[in-house]
């Protein structure tokens, strides 16, 4: 079974879908691994490291993909009209394509038309059995960490209370908006740096998790928030009335904050606006807002996705996109292990190929297409 690892061509993407470590393990499974030259470079993995692990290095995407039965990607392959290269057209028909596939009806239709069996890892059910393959969790965790590190870098004072002979610098006040995987890691990281941390969320379970990490809970609670968690563990979209009440509480807390880390998301929707323009105006000069919800539009009304900006009052807003790619070596290592675990879970040793039973929960969750048909229940016609 030939397995290809492509270089990611999107402008803000520095990760790679296999590392020398996982390439070695894929070879041990029985794969012939071909890595497109330069695929790992921006994540700190040169061609020589893959070659030492036993992989073949291919000069370009077309030669990496020739004869491939499995293709590993971080992001959806570029298709006609996306820019320089129609990667999707180069993937052999019948190949199993694994990555974060930008799963929606249109994308599923494109994969079906290309005859590619696409496994969208972002659709993996968030169940215990799937934890070690959960790319959303592994990447969000690092994004939360990185957000706090970049906030510390952009902040013109310190995180911990610094007692010196010349006087004392107070600890930074940090507010984390949204305490899912990224937010909880942001809380833990800000605490480790010595910040005084509080956090808000709408799910009742998140409140307990915030407290268990030693942060204080800031938020509004009512009947609606007590039922704010979906069966899948995600937040529901809250009513305008609830958001207004929550905003009152946040508006009271924000003028004291030095750092605000925004991570709140509602699955399949634009991110909720939780930090209004007036709230930003109430913050002290030198304060920093890091908005890692920017890929979904951002939690701060002033966030410009992809940009860093400084308001007239001296508040810095880091609205960069794709936060996991800002810590590419670690993010690639975890992402690559997630994909390796997925493959080994379904690996048939006798035939040296993956066998993906349609009735398996994980397979049903991720497979968009099979044999030229859209099979995912969310996107299949009829
Ligand atoms: P997410 O990225 O969808 O959202 C981030 C956070 O934003 C969530 O905590 C959400 O409640 C919060 N949020 C949404 N609207 C908000 C608002 N108006 N104000 C404040 N906060 C708001 O979430 P996630 O990090 O992917 O985690 C989703 C859930 O899945 C969590 O309960 C997590 O613990 C769970 N999970 C479970 C497993 C597992 O294997 N059991 C694995 C990963 C995640």
UniProtKB/TrEMBL annotation:
It catalyses: NAD(+) + NADPH + H(+)(in) = NADH + NADP(+) + H(+)(out). Keywords: NAD, NADP, Nucleotide-binding, Oxidoreductase, Translocase. Residues 152-319 form the Alanine dehydrogenase/pyridine nucleotide transhydrogenase NAD(H)-binding domain. It comes from the Bacteria. GO terms for molecular function: oxidoreductase activity. It is an enzyme of class 7 (translocase). It holds the Pfam family AlaDh_PNT_C. Residues 4-143 form the Alanine dehydrogenase/pyridine nucleotide transhydrogenase N-terminal domain. Its EC number is 7.1.1.1. The transhydrogenation between NADH and NADP is coupled to respiration and ATP hydrolysis and functions as a proton pump across the membrane. This is proton-translocating NAD(P)(+) transhydrogenase. It comes from Pararoseomonas baculiformis.
